[in-house]
Write a structure and sequence with these properties.
The structure is a homododecamer.
Chain A: E1 4-9, H1 21-24, H2 29-43, E2 47-51, H3 55-68, E3 69-75, H4 79-82, H5 84-93, E4 97-101, E5 123-126, H6 130-149
Parallel strand pairs in A: 1-2, 1-3, 3-4, 4-5
């Protein structure tokens, strides 16, 4: 079976679109998932989508993605800035990872400037809101196509 | 139904009163819970009380408290100093949070001086042992009463 | 004579309630003093209350409190962050000190994160506005009662 | 006339595709320009494309873009890490800027971790090679369309 | 009565002109005061002039200036670099403050580079010797005139 | 019943021997477990062996080990560098802990130089690959024997 | 010919008065130039006035000013914080330089606190808006007069 | 009249010998003063001795010592570590100052390692208890004798 | 001849077992040497054992070990934290080095946290007292055996 | 045609020999150029010599040198300490670069201690005045000769 | 035999009085030794006096002093700032050590501000030139007398 | 007798040319010595050449060079980065010192970026391998000739 795209979301992203919709917009994480699924279906690429508040569960999922995913889109939330364990898991699973952020962490508090995930991510897309996910998905689909055309 | 007070306790606080009672006192977390429950009952305010060693579970509980709690008393233990995810969850749930500590972290090792939780907590009570919880509870009860008298 | 509770207030706290009442509230330091006095009178505990903009005067008062106070409530204002002399005076007088702040300094500018006073204070109450004083007073009254019941 | 998309490239990017093609790929900056032009032509959006090694010229161009550009794609190269003047120019021109990098600077030397440009950029795309530009262009085209549909 | 200009001088400025006149010049603080008074008299603006070595007295004077001064010229001397209490007092009194220095602190030892006062001062004049005061006075007089012409 | 040796393994150690065997060797964590079990069986000392990616679960297990383990061998993986909660749990359980690492963290990236676990561990063995575990086990067995011979 | 006053302006100052006039005021750099020219004409002192976004051009101009200027007013904009080359040029030309800023950089972001230019400037005027230039001009005119009266 | 030796003591030194005599010894500051007076009387050198908790008063006294003292012995207590104003006053008065400490600040908390006073003191004696004063006095008497023998 | 194991001990380790035996134990460095010799003799591996307080002599010995030692056990004492020269010598001699410490330096003062030696050591054993040496010796013997069995 | 030696000089070096000749010597940059030309002519190696105050122009010239120079002598002046763009250009052009300084930057202010250029330069010659250039030229000529004798 | 006073001098102190006598004075280390010997002879206390440029030799001598010295006067020179090994040796030998410096290191370069020796020295005398030794000797003689009068 | 050139080499430089010749080249320190001797003989300048691993011996040799050397070439190896004692010895001997390095320390690990020796060396030559010595020798010979021609 064709390997799919895994989208993993970290802490508090479940509140997206629910909390203060007048500020953060009304797009929920469910709706982002729907948009990505629709796009993947057109390409015949399976999509797996998770949200968890647990650092350990993100690592469990990355390990699982090791065999099953062609590309991982990871929005690590605040764990980007504190989790060396997440960084090591990304290095270990040897699947290309794209770090995704709704806002641009570098434009916020100083403690959000450094990302352990960015150190090992293949690419980064940040600051475009829900569009960040769709841009990252395009990159992932492009990589899968390239790989299938030239499997070396 | 009236919204209640949620008391969330972080890592290793379950060992309170059990470990080295000659030093840390014989008051267990269960007994603190009983004191707080007795006080809340008198006011007719529901009390929810949890302890967990998992950062992710603290975030799950904060999310749950979002709809159900009027005030959260949070003793984050060591996660105060390392968890930006916890900080973000507090910001997201928009319920006033009081940070509670048995001892005074600023009087201990340098790595306990900074608290990510304190940056977003409405108030802080630290250093009074079990009394820290009771003082924080009084503040919480006061806020609830004020809110009910002047719901704007 | 029974030893009392000394409440010492540092720089610019005299402007409380006068300056920008629409923002900081209309409770003046005089009114806080009145609230605390009324509460102490009920318990028969003497209350001494001072405000000064002078670091040296705070130290003079702490020295004086050495013989006369059972507990000191200290709102050091900005001296919390810069005065090692104040820290040493607290250590020297051997009276338990509770650090009180109207707002939560850890939620403000980085230079307010560290408190030399907190390093030697027995307990800290911060962020509850005028209520911070009343909570600290309850703790102080509790300690006095405990001490009188068990003078060892 | 419709406002266009300006693509500004900083120091040494002119060597792209020429230098060590076996490592950095054979796509030259000219070819990236061609790809972007082709895409913009289809949408009827004007494209302006520059490369310069001069910090001052980047600022001159940003000033010029102030009236003429709907969105700026900026690959500041190493100036990202050292130029506060560039940062201020971006803030001054009030045109949304997308920071673009071929590689992921956060995965390189520590002195590349901080970007003054990222502090004021609306979005960031990094690490996808030439694809970084195409993803950023999609975002820019999306914003232009949104703006035209809802000019408020 | 018209509000005046208060000129407050911090530690060791009383030695000006007395100590090593061959180096620091023979202009004493008294003479600076006379120059400023003469200029203010011509404009009919009252001048109040103080020097003190006490941080607390500077704060007392700022509090007093709150009602009586239109503008404060403050030469905080070394307290510029260490006094958060002074900074807070300036913020509290809501009178525009101009920080004045005889020499240019940024051209001296590293510990003189940061000024807590500068963070809240409206303007800074430094490095012109006695002329620093006269330039600051011109600015203050200009502000008073503007305010009187357009009291909003 | 005789207290045993608990071996606790942190994040991504489950991938040992599976991932890139040509580089990291073909010894899996299962095989290390088998080696240690065989050695313990010879000594009649019970062995408990866990791996988890969850910081909270490591703390849960340490709490459980409090009553049941004579010595804990802990390979905290990346949590060594970020988890104050783990550090506090080790201090709380009062069982001697040996920190074990396959590689030598001090010879790697700067962010791996500091270990919160090492601050409270009785001993450290690092850099010997699977042999690190066997050396630590010998130390643990030695301590148990000493303790049984001289229970004071 | 009498040596004149050179006024050199750094990056993005050309946008003054044009950009967001409701915030920064409607005074343009051209108008500031006109004010200074009018004042200089009255004194018979030539005025040279430049704005450039290029660090190198600022240095070229300083070199040129070496022979032709009696005093330089320099508003280095953001180059104040990053350009050691500018600092060295000021030291090299041996003409007294007054650093001028419209706003007060010390009251802004931390990366604006240090000025390489201030380390070698004779005086600093900051925070008075367009008035900063006029105050600096008065100081410059005063110096020229003093020099002409006492050419030693 | 012969210039004397001034001994200035900073915050909380008045508690010496009174507080915890079993630890800090029973020698009070009064007794140290008596020892020094007796020694000075033998040499016919006037002794002036002060203690104050006020930074400003220490500066006032240093200014007064400027004309009257041949040498100043200064035990600045905690102000050594925080007071740039004190440092500047020492520089200003041009009387040789010996910094005296009962204990050795470098052997205590990190924030006591740096002394602004030591930067401008001629000599330092620390760690010998009351003997520190007597050793410093001997040095001072030696300097006075040298000066009188060779007034150049 | 078979290459042996060299055990090199740094400053003040000669005082082991002599100084404060009630605290550090009565095992002297001589006795540790005897234990290691006895163990090596059984394996027929030569043992060379040195102690020196001189950084230069440690380097001389490492150079000598370059040809003669199969493995070096190095207890660098305090030179671990300060000697880049020692670090370079270890890199230069290309013999595997095991860093040995009686106590666990990471559990002590901050200045003992970083070890230049650890950066280039193959393995580290710390915190087991005299047992640290015996564990390191086992590792060394294991490596020698492996090497002899598989000399590639 | 034989590839030559390019000598590139950064900001304010044009003032060499003109400014304060009694201090910096009377050798002008022109004379250094003449000395180097004379030496190169004897060897039949073309010499290209530039001075510019513009960071961007230095990068332009390095790019041009990419095809035409065998070795580059670069005196980056103050850009050594601030320009990552210059560093990247050196890396990009793949021509060996020798960093040349008249004085020894490490013996001056702390902000001159670090050189981004030195990180990628093949060799460094500093502190010998005009002789620094001649020594660097000898090294360059030696490399060219070696390369021609052994073109691999 | 009565235990004596050991005076140990570190690197380059042998050049004292020889090098630049017009600046550092003409007192040589030999003459200081003679002064101390004369004073000790009067008290009947043996004096041992050494100078060495070798850190290791200073440690050897401290070890030797362990049995033979009542007090050590140590002028560690530059090793004060870099030698943790020296610090550990002082701790190990359990003889009271007085740190002596001719000049006041805190008044010099920042890298001389911290002394590892001061952290473990009983007392410090610095800044009095040769007199520093004589003052320290008086303290040492006083301690010996006290100890002999009250050997507990 | 004519003063000569002293070449002093620090730790591990004796291994040059022996260790990994395929990487570091086959030129040994002996051969460098021979090259320099041959060159000096031609000029009639005595050459003294030493290598030692001991910091103290380097200082002893510098002291000896004080009277006998006209110039010192010093390759301090790793002591460049850690030895303030070496720095002080160079300052003390008042002979011009050229710091020589085979590789360019600034292009290596961060802890090699700062050189205490460079702070007091007259010139620095680094990164040219054995050629570094020959270039430094030319500079030294030039200085000797200048000095002999113009002995002032």
């Amino acid at each position: 079976m064709r390997k799919g795209i895994w989208v993993l979301n970290g802490p508090s992203l479940n509140l997206l679109g629910v909390r203060r919709p007048e500020i953060y917009g009304r797009t929920t994480l469910k709706e982002i998932q729907a948009q990505l699924e629709e796009r993947c279906q057109r390409e015949g690429v399976p999509l797996v989508f998770h949200q968890t508040n647990h650092e350990g569960t993100l690592i469990d999922l990355l390990h699982e993605a090791r065999e099953k995913a062609a590309v991982v889109l990871l929005n690590p939330g605040a764990y980007a800035h504190t989790s060396i364990a997440l960084r090591d898991a990304i290095e270990a699973v040897e699947v290309p990872v794209i770090e995704v952020h709704l806002s641009n962490p570098q434009a916020r508090e100083p403690f959000r400037r450094h990302s352990f995930v960015a150190e090992v991510a293949r690419g980064v897309v940040a600051g475009f809101g829900a569009l960040s996910y769709r841009l990252a998905l395009e990159a992932a689909l492009g990589w899968i196509q390239e790989k299938e055309e030239d499997p070396l």
